[in-house]
Amino acid sequence: MNLRHLAAAALAILLLFMPLPALAQAYKYYPPPLSYSNAQLSGKDFSGQFLRTAEFSNADLQFTNFSNVQAEGAIFSLSMMKEANFHGADLTNSMLEWTNLTNADFTDAVLVEALFLGANVKKMKITGADFTDAILDGAQVKQLCETASGVNPKTGVDTRESLGCR
């Protein structure tokens, strides 16, 4: 085997063990989703974490801290989320249907196009939250409009306006 063949073989082996730049770039921005389905996470601290497309369905998330998380497209379906803290969180396109959100804090949260059908929104704190194009039923909107106020600091959208309050 001459030097040229040896160099080509070494290069081929090196390329086999190096990640493709496109794949590495994709995982930098879109890592594989995290799954916490059916987990007991009451009181845990996820504050400030990158949780895009994470799955928390049917989980116990009472008193859990999700403040300032980036959780676009996350799934919280069927979870118990009493008194959870989502202050300043980005939950764009997230699924929060059939959850118990009693006393949860969504102050300054971005909830654009989030799904809330069947969710218990009793006593939610929503000052400065942006619900633009969120899917809520009429009773939920009426309940949230009773305390809605403020403007979202990230999107500049008025909370009452985003809910369609009268």
UniProtKB/TrEMBL annotation:
SUPFAM superfamilies on file: Pentapeptide repeat-like
Lineage top rank: taxon: Bacteria
InterPro entries linked: 5peptide_repeat, At2g44920-like
Cleaved signal peptide residues: 1-24
Coiled coil: none
Keywords assigned: Signal
Identification of the protein by name: Pentapeptide repeat-containing protein
Species this protein is from: Phormidium pseudopriestleyi FRX01
Lineage: Bacteria, Bacillati, Cyanobacteriota, Cyanophyceae, Oscillatoriophycideae
